[in-house]
Amino acid sequence: MPEGVEIDWVNSSASLEESAEALQNTKAIILGGALAFDLELAAKCPELRLIQTTSAGTNQLDKAALGELGIKVSNNGGGNAVAVAEHTIALMIGVYRKLQLQFKSVQDGKWMSNIRDEWFSQAHELTGKTVGIIGVGRIGSRVAKRLQGWECGLIYHDVVDPDSELVSDLCMEKVGLDELLATSDIITLHVPLNRNTRGMISDREFDLMKPTAILINACRGPVVDEDAFIRAIEQDKIMAAGVDVLEIEPTPEDNPLIDMDNVLITPHLAAFTQEASEKSRAFATYNTAKVVHGGDPDSVVLPDD
């Protein structure tokens, strides 16, 4: 524990009055997971200067309203970036090899007898594919770095220009969004959820993709218009998809995506590894300690981010 820092645990189910009393002298709060923080409660915390999340996403927090109260929001500083990058590549391979069908066939005692022909028709190698990365931040850049070992062609689109040395080292080419969608074998999303990215992949974008393309989403579900996503799969606009996130979580049992053989879904666990948890907790402790001692926090997320 950093010197001069005292940590108290506050029950997230406590009443507004109980929480406000417990947080009267608190300068920084660490929120576990994707918990939200009530604005009415924030207004009752006169000393509060920082809300620190252990997650990368902060879309559950009204950063503009909190800013008006003098409260900044910081995310986990990339503590889970490696975990999500590895999971992203696992989804790519899982989709290309239809691993969910292979697992089920073995579990059903049928070995390869009932899936071989269907599986083979869509089985592909990752090596040599053109991968379009939308968002080259902490996670997207790590995905790119790992894909170099698979000799993939890397193109990217980002509204913020990444470090030029990074782009050069990873042999990435910047292209417009439409070109990326039209030419990529794999399209992988690594953007925050905000008013600019909500629904950024919809019918128009799916229409631009190659019928052999696969979509990977390990950022936030609402970045993809789910109705358009379902139509794209049903109408063979794209070949397949691998996602760790959906528009509504937990997703309803009647979501048609669940039963589609060419859609691989994991339950929003890409960021959860022992190592990622340790790094995220360490950063949260370090960052809140800076604020307690009068410093400015790192990894501050702006209202539009």
TrEMBL record:
Alphabetic keyword roster: NAD, Oxidoreductase
Domain called D-isomer specific 2-hydroxyacid dehydrogenase catalytic: residue spans: 10-301
All copies of domain D-isomer specific 2-hydroxyacid dehydrogenase NAD-binding, residue ranges: 89-270
GO cellular component: cytosol
An example Gene Ontology molecular-function term: glyoxylate reductase (NADPH) activity
Entry-linked InterPro entries: D-isomer_2-hydroxyacid_DH (IPR050223), D-isomer_2_OHA_DH_cat_dom (IPR006139), D-isomer_DH_CS (IPR029753), D-isomer_DH_CS1 (IPR029752), D-isomer_DH_NAD-bd (IPR006140), NAD(P)-bd_dom_sf (IPR036291)
PANTHER family: 2-HYDROXYACID DEHYDROGENASE-RELATED (PTHR10996), GLYOXYLATE_HYDROXYPYRUVATE REDUCTASE B (PTHR10996:SF283)
Family membership: Belongs to the D-isomer specific 2-hydroxyacid dehydrogenase family.
Protein's name according to its UniProt entry: Lactate dehydrogenase
